[in-house]
Amino acid sequence: MGMSKLNRWALKRSLWAFHINTGSCNGCDIEVIDAFTPRYDVERFGIRLVGSPRHADLLVITGPITRKSLPRILRVYNQMPDPKFVVVAGTCAATGGLFTGSYNIVGSVDEVIPVDAYVIGCPFRPEALIDAVVKLIEKIEKGGNGDEPRENREDN
Ligand code: SF4
Q1: What are 32-57's pLDDT values in tens digits?
Q2: Engineering a disulfide at 90: which of 28, 53, 59, 66 sits with its beta carbon 3.0 to 4.6 angstroms away?
Q3: 90 CA distance to ligand 1 centroid (A)?
């Protein structure tokens, strides 16, 4: 089922984001915060960080999925209301990065939950995160669906 016209109208300028670290070295977390500083000001696109996944439309994930973070990220994702979107921020979240093959690593984020946008870099630049968010907003405006099966999404 696609998003309603009201959902698209409301989300395109008011995405509320919840940021979670699933095993990052903290380098990417610093860049997420950097994007919200006055220098980069991602809030000009209507985005703000919220303290609960229950209030969030957008999940920003840094780091690979570790064995310990797996049940937590699934819980957080399931706590978010539909329609919901996921941005993986950094090479480790997108691919496992330099942690790939470690005894404690389950894998990349898209191995456990659907992903809408990827930001690559170790760490990524704040501009790259802003670019991904703007493209996601454009996708929402065109009717991109935050809850359709991953294999049906246009970025696959
Ligand atoms: S991509 Fe680089 S900076 Fe980001 S969590 Fe991985 S190692 Fe750290």
Answers
A1: 999 999 999 999 998 999 999 999 99
A2: 28
A3: 6
pTM here is 0.88
Cα of 116 from ligand 1 centre, angstroms: 20
d(CA 64, CA 24): 6
* Domain annotation for the chain: domains and CATH numbers: 5-141 (3.40.50.12280)
Q: Which of 32-41, 83-92, 127-136, 145-154 has the lowest mean pLDDT?
A: 145-154
Structure confidence at residue 153 (pLDDT) = 41
Taking each continuous run of H as one helix and of E as one strand, the counts in the chain are 5, 7
Q: 47-51: long-range contacts (C-beta < 8 A, 24 or more apart)?
A: 47/15, 47/16, 47/17, 47/133, 48/16, 48/17, 49/16, 49/17, 49/18, 49/19, 50/16, 50/17, 50/18, 51/18
